[in-house]
Design brief:
This protein is of the alpha+beta class. 38% of the residues lie in helices and 16% in strands. It has a single domain, classed as Nucleoside diphosphate kinase-like domain (Alpha-Beta Plaits, 2-Layer Sandwich), CATH 3.30.70. It is built from seven helices and four strands; from the N terminus they run E-H-H-E-H-H-E-H-H-E-H. The structure holds ribavirin triphosphate. InterPro entries: NDK-like_dom (IPR034907), NDK-like_dom_sf (IPR036850), Nucleoside_diP_kinase (IPR001564), Nucleoside_diP_kinase_AS (IPR023005). It catalyses: a 2'-deoxyribonucleoside 5'-diphosphate + ATP = a 2'-deoxyribonucleoside 5'-triphosphate + ADP.
Length: 149
């Protein structure tokens, strides 16, 4: 069993639209293990760290106010190639390019309201997990269903 981890967040629009169970289900059904979860209202400081690379972009102020507009469901998933697989499950950033069957392809029409976030590399996953979660908030366990025959 791979111990690769990724950070997946259901953004304020996804939480308010009641999409939590639909989104979490896609990761569970695919075979990934949930190791961290919390509903949290992120601070501006946390979001500035999280989106450090985007601070100079013209859309940054609207991204910040969108992400501050309500609680976010922060999650950590573990499993083989989960970073790349997580991005594939989410679909392209711009819903215009997200394939039907992906989360954004099924639930979003606007890049500024694209429902969920997923880490784009193992390096950013490690940074984001450490930013959003304390070590003791992440569970270590072996689900009975894993290690399929
Ligand atoms: P995310 O971090 O949310 O998973 O998205 P991403 O890696 O696919 O895309 P990124 O470039 O990191 O952008 C972060 C979020 O900023 C908003 N955005 N708006 N041109 C725009 O108006 C624009 N570009 C990006 C989106 O909400 C995107 O998910």
């Amino acid at each position: 069993m791979s111990d690769e981890r990724t950070f997946i967040a259901i953004k304020p629009d996804g939480v308010q639209r009641g999409l939590i169970s639909a989104i979490l289900g896609r990761f569970e059904n695919r075979g990934f293990k949930l190791v961290g979860i919390k509903l949290t209202h992120p601070t501006e400081a946390l979001l500035r760290d999280h989106y450090e690379d985007l601070q100079e972009k013209p859309f940054f102020p609207s991204l910040l106010s969108y992400m501050l507009s309500g609680p976010v469901l922060a999650t950590v998933w573990e499993g083989k190639d989960v970073v790349k697989q997580g991005r594939a499950i989410l679909g392209a950033t711009n819903p215009l390019n997200s394939a039907p069957g992906t989360i954004r392809g099924d639930y979003a029409i606007d890049m500024g309201r694209n429902v969920a976030h997923g880490s784009d590399s193992v390096e950013s996953a490690n940074k984001e997990i450490a930013l959003w979660f304390k070590k003791e908030e992440l569970a270590e366990y072996k689900p009975a269903l894993f290690g399929w025959i």
